[in-house]
Amino acid sequence: MAAKTLIIDGKEVSAEEGATVLQVARDNGVKLPTLCHLEGVYDVGACRLCLVEIAGTTKLLPACTTKISEGMRITTDSDRLRKYRRMTIELLFAERNHVCAVCVSNGHCELQTLAYSLGMDHVRYDYIFPKWNVDLTHRMFGMDHNRCILCTRCVRVCWHIEGAGTKNVAGRGATSKIISDLNQPWGDSESCTECGKCVMACPTGALFNKGTTTGEMEHDRDKLEFIVNAREKQQWLP
């Protein structure tokens, strides 16, 4: 592929055509906050935390789904971007019931870590306090909809890494939720292979292993990336 030259935060860099702004930024040591991005599966731009400024447009664009172009001038850190990212994190906390002190992923949660890094010490918006249930019908895993941020990582790994197609999204807006099969209890699912990839992919405490303590809830994303890379390189073919 042809190489493209662009400017990121005043630094001239080059990258292959077809690369995303997020890929180029990370390849050049620029850290961008993300929650819905997961190495090994396609991006959907759901969380809007990786928004960047691009010269020539007044819109903020998601770095994970925006492809680079020749001469593109990108700003990844500004007062405007910090304001939007802080607002986004606060809205995520206000939308559902994220009480870190009693969450199974306390200390191993990407949402919690980002809130710290963005300086969120309080939420300026009214909490919605929705009444979401906890699905404990599966013999190995649990799903706490109170902790879900609808990043759809679990959906994408279930469909495109495991190939089971168990997880999906139902509803619209604030009433959206992750479902199993045709919105039945997870334990009744006939398509679930019990692989646990959805649990590995979850950035919060929404998906968890039953019987796991807080100290053991660190999710291993490297396993998912290893599987994808091995398939692409055809390492498992005879």
Note the main attributes of this structure.
single chain; 238 residues; alpha+beta; Ubiquitin-like (UB roll); Alpha-Beta Plaits; 2 domains; 6 helices; 10 strands
Describe the structure.
By secondary structure, this protein is an alpha+beta fold. It folds into two domains: 3-77, Ubiquitin-like (UB roll), CATH 3.10.20; 84-212, Alpha-Beta Plaits (2-Layer Sandwich), CATH 3.30.70. Helices cover 25% and strands 16% of the residues. It contains six helices and ten strands; from the N terminus they run ββαβββααββαββαβα. It has helices at 21-27, 79-95, 110-117, 153-162, 197-201, 221-232, and strands spanning 3-8, 11-16, 51-54, 60-62, 73-75, 134-135, 141-144, 167-170, 177-180, 207-209. The strands form three sheets. Strands 2-1-5-3-4 form a five-stranded mixed sheet, with helices on both faces. A three-stranded antiparallel sheet has the order 6-7-10. A two-stranded antiparallel ribbon has the order 8-9.
Strand order of the largest sheet: 2-1-5-3-4
CATH architecture of the largest domain: 2-Layer Sandwich
Question: Over the alpha carbons, how many angstroms does the gyration radius reach?
Answer: 19 Å
Report mean pLDDT, rounded to a whole number: 92
User: What's the overall geometry?
Assistant: globular
Task: Describe the structure in brief.
The protein is α+β, with helices and mostly antiparallel strands.
Please outline the helices and strands.
Elements (H helix, E strand, L loop, with lengths): L2 E6 L2 E6 L4 H7 L23 E4 L5 E3 L10 E3 L3 H17 L14 H8 L16 E2 L5 E4 L8 H10 L4 E4 L6 E4 L16 H5 L5 E3 L11 H12 L6
Parallel strand pairs: 1-5
Antiparallel strand pairs: 1-2, 3-4, 3-5, 6-7, 7-10, 8-9
